[in-house]
Fold this sequence. Notes:
mainly alpha
Amino acid sequence: MAIQAFLEIQDTIKKQKISHFALSLKEICNKLNINNVTPKSFRRWFKTELSKRGVRVEFIKRMMGHAIDVEGTSYEDRVNILYKKKIDKE
Length: 90
């Protein structure tokens, strides 16, 4: 019971943070007369800008909240690497 209640509280907090960010972003964009900006489009723009400026991929992934293993490779990248190796063997 206590664990379930804790998880529900954590989920609520996470949703509140996300909605607060979305509202803040909307307010800032309105003040600057910028249209059609969503949290997702802002996130993509931010990642692209970091990449263009030569920031290391591992650092970008950490900033974006992606899981990074000890070697600095995300789970998704490792799956893609293993899949590619499997295809190459066939």
